[in-house]
């Protein structure tokens, strides 16, 4: 848009906001097919659906995702309503999910409570290939249990979804960033390392020293990447329970033959994580062959308290970046269930027939007979040629005579043989066709 849409300015160019697009045609079906498959896998693993609002209180997102993260510092979309509320478009699903858990008192239900959810999320990110400002995530989360098998379950179910979508070369990047017992000592060591190397630290990362020093580990700055090679790693600082938890998660992965790589610099861009953090990588990568993080997740045992709960709710989850899946060269183009190949092409001729056409189409729909039509066309030739082009095996021809007789002509497009069939017998007749 050349001019801002303020309501006062004249629109000079018709376009959607930058980084936000219309989903349609093949891309729409690709998304829908993926969501159907992902839900199916999630349901087999025992996850139940939930859908939280697209807008949340700004303080929930800021408190949940945390200061010092790119999301809160740069990418959050906020608005003040006419009633004076400060709201934010959700930049992810996890803080809203935990809000729902606490708000509905789900602590009283049998634990863990397992949810899947999917939908658009919003981040004022720099748009580029595979990076949008409105994008779609599919999440799996187990809330209310701190056992390592929950981490393994989330990883396994996520891997299965990605494999069903066509990914073949998956591996897990994994790390443990400890809990409140051991993280303090680690952070002290880490900040002291950066302080010693302050002159080599770019300004953005120096800023992070104050807000969120852990994030320096996943800095994209070249100088910092070099410094990080020698930085102390969190695993060496884990307390005994965290060490045990991490060891168990890795044992589960080995038992399931899931390839993993311990990445000591993996901290993830959200501040609510404790213990396990992970990303699933497709080694084959995108069109340029660059390995792609298809999703990320981890444990977030303190998020509940961070957003105002009186009690901790141990939890673990994962989020798949769906835009990246459907654009990947290996994506299987999962077809949504509602898409049916038409078996019949409906042709109408003359005003009397056109008048009754929609009634016949409704009879076919109710009987689940998939059809195609071009009701706006009038001539037999143009309608037949579309049927041929679409390679539809049968045509129903409904002309003036048939409209008066309450019948139709059914034409076999392969050999051009035809039968006249009474409307009352049509469904029976169609059932007999191959
Ligand atoms: P995240 O790593 O921020 O985690 O996002 C998950 C995935 O969303 C990324 O791995 C990526 O595939 C995709 N993604 C992120 N930003 C963009 C973008 N601008 N355009 C397109 N795709 C993008 C979370 O959001 C956590 N809530 C995950 C989680 C669930 N942790 C626990 N439960």
UniProtKB/TrEMBL annotation:
User: NCBIfam families, per this entry?
Assistant: hisS
What interactions and quaternary structure are annotated? Homodimer.
Question: Mind telling me which PROSITE patterns this protein's record contains?
Answer: AA_TRNA_LIGASE_II
Q: Which GO terms describe its molecular function?
A: ATP binding; histidine-tRNA ligase activity
Keyword annotations of the record: Aminoacyl-tRNA synthetase, ATP-binding, Cytoplasm, Ligase, Nucleotide-binding, Protein biosynthesis
Q: Which reaction does it catalyse?
A: tRNA(His) + L-histidine + ATP = L-histidyl-tRNA(His) + AMP + diphosphate + H(+)
List the record's Gene Ontology CC terms alphabetically: cytoplasm
Q: What is its main location?
A: cytoplasm
What is this organism's lineage? Bacteria, Candidatus Nomuraibacteriota
State the top-level EC class: ligase
Q: Does the keyword Ion transport apply?
A: no
Q: Which residues cross the membrane?
A: none
Task: Identify the residues that bind L-histidine.
Answer: 92-94, 123, 137, 141, 268, 272-273
Can you give the residue ranges of the Aminoacyl-transfer RNA synthetases class-II family profile domain?
34-328
Family statement: Belongs to the class-II aminoacyl-tRNA synthetase family.
Compartments it resides in: Cytoplasm
* This protein's record includes keyword RNA-binding: no
This enzyme's EC code(s): 6.1.1.21
Q: Which gene encodes it?
A: hisS
The record's annotation in Pfam families points to: HGTP_anticodon, tRNA-synt_His
Task: Write out the GO biological process terms.
Answer: histidyl-tRNA aminoacylation
Instruction: Specify the protein name.
Output: Histidine--tRNA ligase
């Amino acid at each position: 848009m050349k001019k801002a849409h303020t309501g006062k300015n004249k629109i000079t160019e018709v376009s959607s906001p930058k980084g936000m697009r219309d989903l349609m045609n093949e891309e729409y079906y690709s998304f829908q097919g993926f969501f159907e498959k992902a839900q199916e896998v999630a349901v087999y693993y025992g996850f139940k659906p939930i859908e939280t609002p697209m807008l949340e209180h700004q303080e929930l997102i800021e408190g949940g995702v945390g200061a010092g993260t790119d999301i809160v510092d740069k990418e959050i979309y906020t608005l003040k309503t006419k009633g004076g509320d400060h709201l934010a478009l959700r930049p992810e699903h996890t803080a809203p999910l935990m809000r729902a858990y606490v708000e509905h008192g789900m602590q009283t239900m049998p634990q863990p409570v397992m949810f899947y959810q999917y939908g658009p999320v919003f981040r004022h990110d720099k748009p580029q290939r595979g990076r949008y400002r409105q994008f779609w995530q599919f999440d799996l989360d187990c809330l209310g249990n701190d056992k390592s098998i929950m981490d393994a379950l989330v990883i396994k179910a996520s891997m299965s979804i990605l494999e069903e979508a066509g990914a073949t070369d998956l591996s897990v990047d994994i790390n443990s960033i400890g809990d409140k017992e051991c993280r303090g000592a680690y952070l002290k060591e880490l900040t002291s390392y950066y302080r010693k190397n302050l002159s080599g630290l770019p300004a953005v990362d120096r800023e992070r020293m104050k807000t969120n020093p852990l994030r320096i580990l996943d800095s994209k700055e070249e100088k910092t990447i070099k410094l990080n090679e020698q930085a102390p790693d969190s695993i060496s600082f884990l307390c005994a329970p965290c060490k045990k938890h991490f060891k168990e998660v890795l044992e589960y992965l080995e038992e399931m033959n899931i390839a993993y790589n311990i990445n000591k610099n993996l901290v993830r861009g959200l501040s609510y994580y404790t213990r396990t953090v992970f990303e699933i990588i497709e080694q084959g990568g995108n069109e340029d062959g660059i390995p792609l993080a298809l999703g990320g997740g981890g444990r977030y045992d303190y998020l509940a308290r961070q957003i105002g709960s009186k009690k901790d709710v141990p939890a673990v989850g994962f989020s798949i970046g769906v835009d990246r899946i459907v654009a990947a060269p290996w994506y299987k183009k999962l077809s949504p269930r509602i898409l049916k190949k038409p078996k019949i092409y409906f042709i109408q001729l003359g005003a009397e027939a056109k008048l009754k056409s929609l009634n016949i189409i409704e009879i076919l729909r109710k009987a689940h007979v998939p059809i195609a039509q071009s009701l706006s066309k009038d001539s037999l030739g143009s309608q037949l040629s579309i049927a041929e082009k679409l390679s539809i095996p049968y045509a129903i021809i409904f002309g003036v005579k048939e409209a008066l007789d309450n019948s139709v002509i059914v034409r076999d497009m392969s050999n051009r043989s035809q039968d006249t069939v009474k409307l009352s017998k049509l469904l029976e007749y169609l059932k007999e066709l191959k």
